Amino acid sequence: MKLTGFELRWITMPLVAPFRTSFGTTTSREVLLVRAVTEDAEGWGECVAMADPFYSAEYAEGAAAVLRDHLVPALAAAKPTHTPAVAGALAPVKGHRMAKAALETAVLDAELRAEGRSFARELGAVRDRVPCGVSVGIMESVPALLDAVDGYLAEGYVRIKLKIEPGWDVEPVRAVRERFGDELLLQADANAAYALSDARHLAALDPFDLLLIEQPLAEEDVLGHADLARLIRTPVCLDESITSAASAAAAIRLGACRIVNVKPGRVGGYLEARRIHDVCAAHGVPVWCGGMLETGLGRAANVALAALPGFTLPGDTSASGRYYAADITEPFVLDGGHLPVPTGPGLGVAPDPDRLADCTDRVEWIAV
Ligand code: NPG
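ok -> structure tokens follow
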């Protein structure tokens, strides 16, 4: 593998409907894409950083800056001959895992495309399709929420995740449970909107048999999650707090989570995501694949990861149409509540050139 250069590409994708979480409302996804060009192939990585630093400290313009000024130069100097060497070359740069993940994914995609191997095979996938859940944003009213959930269930989604925040938690969860019954796989995601002093209030979710409550407390508050886990019956799942395999191992040992949401972009890439899967599997901790409103590029890699054996819960790997009227790749379409795991070389999908041109705001080339 000989690197020629990297393209940073900013695209804007309007959402089919606004998506509200405890940290804000998104109406349009601004995505930073990285294209790696080698002598033999090209590959794509999608940076999951949002436009603003409200979900995490990282944000898209910051990711672009660290890629341009630090990460790409570090890679150019290290001249890695294969992808597993990339993380080591980038390690002197602290943090910036979303930027690192995009870079490593682009290099991995190029390497696998050149060798004719798929992401799924490389990561160790054991399934050819994965069951899909859907994340349902905070709504104006409970009737509007029930209509939205009804629509997603009609499309075939096998699990519903409700975004919650103080003032929008017990009532919507109760309404969905009562309307759709005990069989529905249901979970809630707080995106760090609560404090440990809310434990009694969160215990009011216990009767609704949620699969899990995701990231109720702040990202840094792993001990708080361990305390909370002793005060509520709903299993605690960590998202934002899990930044690496080491942090996953520590959280499990502390009793801070019984389930882990693995987001490759948040942890520095698919190879680290696989290590988190391995750590969790060794401890009997189920994992599932999270989502960050990815385009078809990021979705393809997530679906491949979700096909690993320890991913025993449905992920936020929804169809392209959940967020985008027109994806930049062939759309991922739900089939009986599942998405097919791509089998072609690399990610197994590629952007449609016209569609990509239509949504591109800016392109920058960095030779190495
Ligand atoms: O289906 O891609 C998806 C999105 C699922 O709810 C989802 N993601 O906190 O997990 C999350 C949330 C999120 C969205 C986080 C956007 C950050 C940005």
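Residues 3-116+349-367 form a domain with the Enolase-like; domain 1 fold (CATH 3.30.390.10).
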